Amino acid sequence: MSTSMPENGRLMALDVGDRRVGVALSDEMQMLATPLTVLTRRSRKEDAQRLGNIAGERAVAGLVVGLPLHADGSESTQARATARYGHRIGNDLGLPVLLWNEHGSTQEAAARLEQAGRRGSSPGLDAEAAAVILQDYLDAQRAEAVRI
User: Fold this and answer.
1) pLDDT tens digits for range 95-121
2) Phi-psi region for residue 26, left (φ > 0), alpha (ψ -120 to 50) or beta?
3) Domains in the chain, please, with CATH?
């Protein structure tokens, strides 16, 4: 389900939906994820160009793509489409791609926005969900490093 990510450099996370893509970035130390923007999906070529601009401007070293698995961990049709999209974008940008289970990320993002006094259905919800996905990945990597 995954490819090895660079240990150094900024990572970009994507929360891929049918109409929008939430984008978040890590810091260069890969400690903290921050929501960045929400892109309205157009064609994959246009999406790759816009994401490539972000990746180039921010010196992104890898992509973490949220994978919408079922609660039991099984793959859905949407998960297969998302994986295909993520890998194609990664190939277009020349970046390694890691697929990460995004189960519960939208609910967590909505709760964070509500706690911050913003509506959970605000335009930033998809970017916040991308940040939740990325932070989950970053935290898991730190936990794994501690166990080793």
Assistant:
1) 999 999 887 666 676 677 677 667 655
2) beta
3) 11-147 (3.30.420.140)
